[in-house]
Design brief:
The complex is a heterotrimer of chains A (516), B (452) and C (165). Helix content of chain A is 23%, strand content 21%. By secondary structure, chain A is of the alpha+beta class. In chain A, a hairpin with an 8-residue loop joins strand 11 (220-225) and strand 12 (234-240). Chain C contains 7 helices and 4 strands, in the order ααααβααβββα. The longest helix of chain C is centred in the first third of the chain and has 12 residues, at 34-45. Chain C starts with 13 loop residues before the first helix and ends with a helix. Classes of the chains: A alpha+beta (516), B alpha/beta (452), C alpha+beta (165).
Chain lengths: 516, 452, 165
């Protein structure tokens, strides 16, 4: 694609951007964030908040940065006196009817009205009249509307109309009586509706789930990947006191743009489970790790590892499991729970996928077979290795055919009555690794919190088991496991943690159309 | 004039010639008065020829902005393969203005003819007359005229037997001043909230239904048949001041004046003569105090300014205001300027679409402060706030409603500041000291809580 | 005037259905039929209820939320039932300076409406102030339902009201 580049100056810095780029986006490339509310890169331009007014030399009036295209030779001043005065005026007007309730507002600390007021606004208010009042409204789904805080930027309306294709929100009334309305019999329960909470620049649309759980500045944030389905939306895990309290989408142009679905958003409570396996066990007793690993190796001696793996396990862990299978002449299976597919119409190739697990693709690439009832294949001579799976009670009989059972997991499967070894592992929030989404994109997730008790990262436990069964796997970091994986497995060829960075890479073989 | 009174001898009735003549409303009557000859003639010409004549006449938009009509039409490219639309702006809502109403009430066929010519000139097969919902009588008159025109094959698929398609439809608004703004009108026509659009794109590129569109005020369109029949030179010759302002213009006159009504004069007419001679001056025992000459959106004039004005596009600008829509609102010495300004800003607050921050919040805040001042609870700081807010409301929003609200505030404070101050000092002389909490009894103004 | 609880009878059946279908031929989009469709609803029902908005949405392939956004933008659509005679008195500046406020008071007094916007106890009248009716030279213009009456002064109010059925 040949693009014409336009050259201009923004705040004295030369900028070259493709023709048609807005001044606001062009300024970003020069490291300048022009304050704005209604503009959002994932939504159609509205140009209504008038916050992004900048001075363009030779133009008669200030220009809205979001709705003004760059022009050759333009000279833009973001912080000129005129532009600052205009934005100060906008901030003052946005605040006259806005309650001063930051101390009890969930948005506080991550509020764009707060931020820009602090940055460019007036120190005092000249408003001496009564403030507008409208009652709080439950919008259904996970969304609550606090109209008094609303600045009518219409991001939520545009998201539901133009991106979600579910126009249930509107601007009702007009002038200063306007507010965001919702169709009375349609709640915000659409698959992607809760994105309006993220999009809201102020505390007008709030998550009911997150309500009053934490102040924004108390949160520890970690880059991760959603395990709710095979789409692999980039997310941020947000924790307070070692508890995941919120998941929010993390921007990734190639995967999920700025969005994530409500299913993924609510898919975090299990990360805080307290009924976890915390200590290794052998023969029904808690033991030291060395003893438990030895017990596992002993059970596997001369037997075939019959591995059933959770489809959310990392590529690293699955790779080591593959080697365990190879070493023992065993077999590997995984199962993916199914759900209804729910696309986000406004973004190509973005959907809550029917495959409700994050790494089915990785498992397939590493030779695991997809099967809904794998345990039925267990034969005498197999040792069932259950890796973070909880088989149905009916699988008890099949498990009974195995010579032994090794549990590697975060919780004890109810169906298992006696295990040769129980090896507690960390969950996805507690370790790092990579996941492969349905398009063959390999993406890293980082550790957000500590694993409970003596639980260890899954790849670490598997490396120990491999060593104990005679396969040298002296890995001390997830990074080292991934390097070995990249060397050994063609679809991962050429990849490294550094190269994946925080947004991932599509497998070269997928790109070349070779398939894995 | 013509209705309710006879035209004044110093008027030049061209468009208003048949006001008050019921016969002009029917097709037969209209034809006897020379109606539809211009259309017949136009359909024998090329669209480009029509545009050239209109250009040469110097006709400028009568809705408020005064853009040269022929130039506007020349932006349209008939034959570009796209559907074109002609929109007639009959949403006359500018306070003080009621000329289009009379045109449509008395001479509906004049507008139908103007629309048909305009549509043909810009390559449009469809023209919509967007008319405000309150104008039920004009709507009924227009609908009746259209019915006759279709029945007589003046309009339709074979307009006047030329094989050309010209459709004209009435589209009724529903109570929104802002729909008189051209892009808001297009949104409204499309079945949306009347929110003005960001420009560019301009209507000639992407207007109604995303297609090339020209939007023209009623008075402008009804002038076109006369220009075609009598020639550009005839029209151009109607000029009393400068060559940029040609032709006749209807001025609606209202407020505190002897003979309110619609007066048609040649542009450049002395405003002083207009007010005192044509309109009869102030009512008995009163004196004029201030004038808003171009509809509520333009700055207020003092009488010194008004009496020095020549009534054309440039003449009003030279005297601190604008010609606007030609709605002349006259206030006499019994009127309080602050009260009238407060009433005007209340209008704009009511009519703001609410998209842009400065307009949504500023029109309302301005009104609340003014109401408080009028109620006797203002401060000098309020006047500074009003002026600073007016600055924030000017030139910063998608459309100019916000600017329009600021105009009477700024001009009112510049030219009649003493009246505002009198209300404030009046308060000072009472028991309420400056800086003490606001009293809660301000009429229509909510009580301030903990104001600093 | 129908209450919210009564079963909703659709507007766009029979003649009205034909009418809207004919009308839609004037426009390149169905959405453009929204304002006219809402007018039809109001002519037939006196106001635009939420059920009516839902019906209009279905007829024009829009959503109820969208229709509500449009209805609430335009002041002439009644979102609640109003009196049989809906009286709008222009009080914008040109009329105000000719005493429109006194005309408003006269209507309030003679209709039994205690407040602006509150329908009289007998359900016959609702009086509101309206922004510029575009008849400033005939102050004070008063619009009663679709009819505009020019040059209304307080003393004419009883006569005008007596003439209403």
């Amino acid at each position: 694609m040949s693009e014409t580049l336009v050259n201009l100056m923004i705040e004295g810095r030369p900028v070259s951007v493709p023709a048609g780029t807005s001044i606001l986006e062009a300024a970003k490339t020069a490291g300048i964030l022009i304050p704005h509310y209604c503009y959002h890169p994932g939504l159609p331009v509205a140009g209504v908040c008038r916050m992004c007014l900048v001075e363009v030399e030779k133009a008669p009036k200030l220009a809205p940065g979001c709705a003004t295209a760059v022009a050759e030779g333009q000279v833009v001043h973001v912080y000129s006196e005129k532009a600052l005065e205009a934005r100060k005026g906008v901030l003052e007007m946005l605040l006259i009817n806005h309650p001063l309730d930051c101390p009890i507002c969930d948005q506080s600390g991550e509020c764009e009205l707060q931020d820009y007021t602090f940055q460019e606004g007036r120190a005092d208010s000249r408003y001496r009249e009564a403030k507008r009042f409208n009652p709080v409204e439950d919008f259904g789904g996970d969304v609550m509307y606090v109209p008094n805080r609303c600045i009518l930027c219409t991001r939520c309306v545009r998201f539901m109309d133009d991106i979600h294709g579910a126009p249930v929100l509107n601007v009702s009334e007009r002038g200063d009586r306007a507010y965001i309305g919702k169709a009375p019999d349609q709640d915000l329960t659409q698959a992607w509706a809760a994105n309006v909470v993220d999009l809201c620049p102020v505390g007008a649309l709030l998550s009911k789930d997150f309500l009053n759980k934490a102040r924004a500045w108390e949160l520890d944030r970690t880059a991760s990947v959603c395990t709710g389905c095979s789409q692999g939306c980039n997310v941020t895990l947000e924790l307070r006191d070692q508890q995941v309290v919120r998941i929010r989408p993390r921007g990734n142009t190639d995967v999920n743009k700025f969005f994530m679905c409500d299913h993924g958003r609510m898919n975090y409570k299990w990360m805080n489970r307290v009924d976890r396996l915390e200590a290794p066990m052998a023969g029904g007793s808690m033991v030291d790790w060395e003893v438990a690993i030895e017990a596992a190796a002993k059970a596997l001696k001369g037997k075939r590892a019959f591995v059933v793996a959770n489809a959310n396990l990392s590529n690293e862990t699955l790779f080591l499991l593959k080697r365990l299978i190879a070493k023992t002449g065993g077999s590997g299976y995984f199962n993916v729970p199914q759900g209804e597919e729910a696309p986000l119409p406004g973004v190509p190739d973005l959907a809550l996928r029917a495959d409700r697990a994050a790494n089915g693709t990785g498992a397939e690439w590493l030779g695991f077979k997809r099967d809904a009832k794998p345990l039925s294949y267990i034969k005498p001579g197999d040792v069932a290795v259950l890796v973070d799976v909880a088989p149905h009670a009916a699988a008890g009989e099949a498990l009974g055919r195995a010579d032994a059972i090794i549990v590697i997991g975060t919780a004890m499967p109810a169906v298992v009555t006696a295990a040769a070894a129980v090896l507690p592992i960390a969950n996805v929030a507690e370790e790092e690794g990579t996941l492969t989404n349905l398009r063959g994109r390999v993406q890293r997730f980082l550790q957000a919190k500590a694993a409970p008790g003596m639980a260890r990262p899954s790849w670490f436990v598997l490396a120990d088991v491999l060593n104990a069964v005679g396969d040298t796997a002296g890995y001390l970091t997830a990074n080292a496991v991934f390097d070995a994986l990249a060397k050994a497995e063609q679809p991962f060829a050429g990849m490294s943690y550094d190269a994946l960075a925080l947004t991932g890479t599509e497998s070269a073989s997928v790109r070349a159309g070779v398939g894995a | 004039m013509g209705y309710p009174q006879k035209s004044h001898p110093r008027e030049t009735p061209v468009l208003s010639k048949h006001f008050g003549n019921g016969d002009a409303r029917t097709l037969d009557g209209w034809k006897k008065l020379g109606g539809y000859k211009a259309l017949e003639q136009a359909l024998q010409m090329t669209p480009a020829q029509i545009v050239e004549i209109v250009k040469a006449s110097g006709l400028r938009g009568r809705g408020g902005a005064g853009f040269p009509t022929g130039v506007k039409w020349s932006f349209m490219k008939p034959g570009d393969g796209k559907p074109h639309y002609l929109l007639c702006n009959a949403d006359e809502s500018e306070p003080g203005t009621f000329k289009d109403r009379e045109i449509m009430r008395w001479t509906p066929h004049a507008l139908v003819e103007g629309c048909a010519i305009g549509a043909y000139a810009i390559g449009a097969e469809t023209s919509y007359i967007y008319i405000r919902g309150e104008f039920q009588e004009p709507i009924d008159r227009l609908e009746a005229a259209l019915k006759e025109a279709y029945a007589a094959n003046i309009l339709g698929k074979n307009a006047m037997g030329t094989g050309k398609t010209i459709n004209v439809y009435v589209h009724k608004g529903a109570g929104a001043y802002i729909c008189g703004e051209e892009t808001a009108l297009m949104e409204s026509l499309e079945g949306k909230r009347g929110n003005p659009r960001i420009k560019p794109p301009f209507p000639a590129v992407s207007g109604a239904f995303g297609q090339p569109t020209t939007i023209i005020n009623v008075e402008t369109l009804v002038a076109v048949p006369h220009i075609l029949l009598n020639g550009a030179e005839w029209y151009k010759a109607m000029c009393l001041s400068n060559a940029k302002s040609t032709g006749t213009k209807l001025f609606s006159v209202c407020g505190n004046i002897m003979r309110p009504g619609n007066y048609e004069i040649v542009l450049g007419f002395p405003f002083k003569d207009f007010l005192y001679d044509l309109c009869g001056g102030p009512t008995a025992g009163r004196h004029f105090k201030a004038i808003i000459p171009g509809g509520a959106s333009v700055p207020i004039q003092t009488m010194d300014e008004a009496e020095a004005t020549l009534m054309d596009y440039e003449g009003f600008v030279a005297q601190g205001t604008m010609l606007g829509s030609g709605g002349v609102i006259v206030f006499d010495d019994a009127q309080s300027i602050p009260r009238q300004v407060a009433r005007l800003t209340r209008f704009f607050a009511h009519e703001s679409c609410g998209q842009c921050t400065q307009c949504r919040e500023g029109t309302s805040w301005t009104t609340r402060i003014l109401d408080r001042i009028v109620a006797g609870h203002g401060t000098y700081e309020d006047l500074d706030t009003l002026l600073e807010m007016a600055e924030n409301m000017t030139g910063k929003t998608i459309c100019v409603l916000s600017d329009s609200c600021a105009a009477p505030v700024v001009s009112g404070l510049q030219k009649f500041r003493h009246e505002f101050e009198a209300l404030i000092t009046g308060k000072k002389s009472s028991t309420v000291a400056v800086g003490s909490p606001l009293p809660g009894a301000a009429s229509k103004s909510p009580v301030s809580v903990g104001a600093a | 005037m129908s209450a919210h609880t009564e079963p909703y009878a659709p507007v766009f059946v029979g003649k009205r259905k034909e009418e809207i279908e004919t009308l839609l031929q004037r426009y390149p989009t169905k959405m453009a039929g929204l304002l006219p469709a809402l007018w039809m609803v109001q002519e037939d029902r006196g106001w635009v209820s939420e059920q009516a908005m839902t019906e209009v949405a279905a007829v024009l392939e829009l959503t109820p939320a969208y229709v509500k956004g449009v209805v609430s933008f335009y002041t002439m659509y009644h979102q609640h039932p109003v009196g049989k005679h809906f009286i709008q008195v222009c009080t914008t500046s040109p009329c105000l300076c000719n005493g429109a406020d006194k005309v408003v008071n006269a209507f309030l007094e003679h209709t039994g409406c205690k407040e602006l916007g509150i329908t009289s106890p007998d359900g016959r009248f609702t009086v509101i102030e309206v922004e510029c009716l575009g008849a400033c030279g005939f102050s004070t213009p008063v619009q009663i339902n679709a009819d505009t009456i020019e040059n209304v002064t307080p003393d004419k109010v009883p006569v005008i009201l007596a003439g209403l059925k």
